[in-house]
Amino acid sequence: MKTEDSKAVRSNPKALFPIALFLVLYLGNGIFFEYIKPLEGQMGFYVVSVVLAFSISLIAAFLQNRNYSFEEKIHICAQGIGDDNIVIMLFIFLMAGAFSGIASEAGGASSTANMLLNIIPGRFAIPGLFLIACIISMAMGTSVGTISVLAPIACAVSQNGGIDLPLCLGVVVGGSMFGDNLSFISDTTIAATKTQGVEMKDKFRTNIKVALPSAIITFIILIVYALMKNGADVGDFKFSFIQALPYFIVLALSIIGINVFIVLITGIVLFVGAGIMTGSLTYATALNSMGSGMSGMFETMIVTILVASIASLMKENGGFEAILSLIRRKANGKRGGMLGIALLTAFMDVATANNTVAIVIAAPIAKDISDEYEVSPKMTASLLDTCSCIMQGIIPYGAQLLVAANIAQITSVSIIPFLIYPFVLMVFIAVAIIRAK
Description:
Blueprint: H1 17-36, H2 50-63, H3 70-81, H4 84-105, H5 108-119, H6 125-140, H7 143-161, H8 165-182, H9 187-196, H10 200-228, H11 241-255, H12 260-278, H13 283-295, H14 298-316, H15 319-330, H16 333-352, H17 355-373, H18 377-394, H19 399-408, H20 420-434
Helix pairs in contact: 1-2, 2-14, 3-14, 4-9, 4-12, 4-13, 4-14, 5-6, 5-7, 5-11, 6-7, 6-8, 6-10, 6-11, 7-8, 7-19, 8-10, 8-18, 9-17, 9-18, 10-18, 10-20, 11-12, 14-17, 15-17, 16-17, 16-18, 17-18, 18-20
C-alpha cells in the first residue's frame, strides 16, 4: 500500500481523524443505544451498521490532503484493496462462509457436542463443556456459532444438574474463544495471518505456546471445582456420529498444515455427504445453506475493503507515522513494540466490539510497528489474534456474551466473573511480552 512518495511521509496526527470519526459513530451510538436509550429486542452496538460507519469515515479520509486529486486517492485505495493478502483473505472468507453454512445445516456442530457430552461423566460436566467448546470452535472457526450451538446445551446442563447457569455459559464462551483464536478457518486467524503475510501454521505454532497452557490451567481449575462438588445427572443428548465425523477430519487436516482452501472444500464435500446420508440435508437445502453462509460473510468482506481503503489513505497522509512516533516516545525495544501492538489491538476491539474488524484496522499499523521493532510477523499475527479474542471474550456488549446471555435470559455482565480462560490467557500474553528478547 505504498506510493512512490510514501517513504518521505511525515507524522500527521490529523490523518487519524477518519478512525476517530468511526469510533465516535460506532462506539458512541453503541453505548447510547445499549445503555442510555436501549431499543427493545435489539442489541445497541448493532443499531448503527459498521459498514455505514466505515463508509462515512472513508468519505472523511477522501476529504483530507488536497495535495492529491480524487483520482490519485482512488488509486491509493485500489493499491490497498489489491494487496495480494487482502485478495486471498476475501476468497477465504467466502469459502469459510460456505463451510459454516453447510456444517450448521447438516447438524455437525450439535451432533459433535452431544456426542462428547454423552461420553463425559456427569460429575465433570463443567470441564466437559469447556473442552467441548474448545473442540467445536476449533472445528467451526467461529465463537458466535459455537456459543449459539452450545448455550442451549449449557442451559440444559445447568437445569438438570443444578449447576450455576452463568458458570456454564462462562466456560462455553471461554472455550469458544480458544478455537476462535487458534482455528485455521477462523476469520480472525485469516485476517491476522494474511495481513502480516505469514503462514497459518507458523502463527498457530506461536499462538499455541500461550493458548494451550492457558486452556490447560483453565481445565485444571474446572476439574478441581468439579471434584469439590457432588455428581450430577445432566441428561442424555442425541447425536449422529456420521454428522460429527467431518468436523474431526477438518480439524485434523487443519492441524497438519493442509492448505486452507483444500481443508474448506474437503469439509464442504464431507458435510454434503453426511447430510444426505443422514437425511438432514437435501440438494436444495445444501445449496441454500452454502449460499446463506457466504452471504453472512459479505459484511466482513465489505468492512475489509473499506478498512483497506481508509488505512491506505491514512498511511499516505501520515497517520501511521503519527502512531509510530508516539510508540517511539513510549516504547523501549522489542517488548515495547509488542506491547504497542497488543494495546492497539485491544483498544480497537473494545471500540468496535468485533475482533475481526479490530484486527483489520490494527493490522497495517501493527505491521509497521513489527518492522521497526523487529517483532517477527508470526508473533505480530499471534498478538493481533489473541489480544482481539481476549477483549472480545470479556466485553459485555460483544456479540459473544450478548448471544449467550440472550439465549439464557440473563445479563451479559453476570457471565463475566466466570470467564476464566480469557483472563488466564491475558496473564500468559503479558508474561510473553515481558519475557521477549
